[in-house]
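Entry 12.
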Amino acid sequence: MRTSSPKPNSAPRQRATGRRSPLATVALIAIGLVATGGAYALASTTATATNPAIVHQASADEGKKLFAANCANCHGLDAAGTDEGPSLHGVGAASADFQLGTGRMPLAMQGPQGEKKTPQFTAEQIADLVAYVASLAPGPALPEDRYLQADGSASKGAELYRINCAMCHNVAGAGGALTQGKFAPALAGVEARHIYEAMVTGPQNMPVFSDLNITPQQKADIITYLKFIENNPSVGGADLGSLGPVSEGLFIWIFGLGAIVAMTVWIAARPN
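Predicted 3D structure (tokens):
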């Protein structure tokens, strides 16, 4: 009995459809890399934001680079001081913020004292330099915001100011001359935090007023008084620079006596 072999399938095999393009693999790899990088960046940012120590250290590291490039010539690479500049170990964040924020540092030239000018660094760079100086050794910290609102007692601040500050800065904060070319600067327009920092660090010729001498709240009262007289005009009219009897006497001498002399000459010349 003959057995017939199975006939080959005569129907053509259908071509597979939906074949993956070679570019799809590349696209999947790229998407995976982007997702992984984004997740890592998010995790790093979150970790840094929740750890102030990391932020401070990173800021101090940047400040050290800025210090080496801009300040080390005078203060030394290790900030231990040279013949041109004092040591910065222990001066604290408050001192660095005052000197940099008011533009007194870096010095434009050597002189009796550094003068206020436009800051040479951005706010971020100043924060980095302050973090670096603060990391060198313990010192006065930056003032708390609650003491800088100028909402204390202006009357108490006026009394404290007259006792501790007016002999140099003038009772109206107009400033005054000191010895050997030095001077107490005017206080109008000075930021509250810089006033506070000056009191706790004693820059240049100014004495240091620690919290044992003048409490933080009393410092806030002094700031309140200074901002009050800055924002309110003189009730006595033209203040002539708020320099007291010096400017007033000069005004009378020049204009008052000048008017009397002119009147005398005019009267004497009339009969002629």
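Annotation: The radius of gyration is 36 Å. The mean pLDDT is 84.
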